[in-house]
Design goal:
Keywords: Membrane, Transmembrane, Transmembrane helix. This protein has 124 residues and is mostly helical. It has four helices and no strands.
Length: 124
């Protein structure tokens, strides 16, 4: 089957992405108002972004990177996907409260860039 080429971690991420995508579609179709629905929407969206971006980032690194560093690609892909997912979620939260502007998003991106550069220099 097509999923046999994935290792167990990648299979788990693929299953999480598919389940969270189905949950997002269900939440958008039901349109049940309430604070729990909104919280559940953001949590499911965060799971979907994290799992999908991790898989995409890992395969881009694997395709364009060096073969001897493949064991390090997953941890880096997961960390950078976490930052990008948090940027997406925080941007949507700011937008829903009417506080979204390019300056706020630029500061948010700068915070994560500095955090990532700190982690790279600390580990390197």
């Amino acid at each position: 089957m097509w999923y046999n080429k994935f290792n167990p971690t990648q299979r788990a991420l693929l299953v999480i992405a598919l389940i969270s995508l189905a949950s997002l579609m269900t939440l958008m179709l039901l349109r049940v108002p309430g604070a729990w629905t909104i919280l559940l929407f953001y949590l499911v969206l965060a799971c979907f972004c994290l799992s999908t971006l991790t898989l995409v980032n890992f395969y881009i690194r694997r395709l364009l990177g060096q073969r001897e560093f493949q064991h390090l690609y997953f941890a880096t892909a997961l960390r950078q996907s976490l930052w990008l997912s948090l940027i997406v979620i925080f941007s949507l939260l700011l937008s829903s409260h009417g506080l979204f502007s390019w300056i706020n998003t630029s500061f948010l991106i700068l915070v994560f860039v500095f955090l990532e550069s700190y982690l790279i220099t600390k580990n390197g």
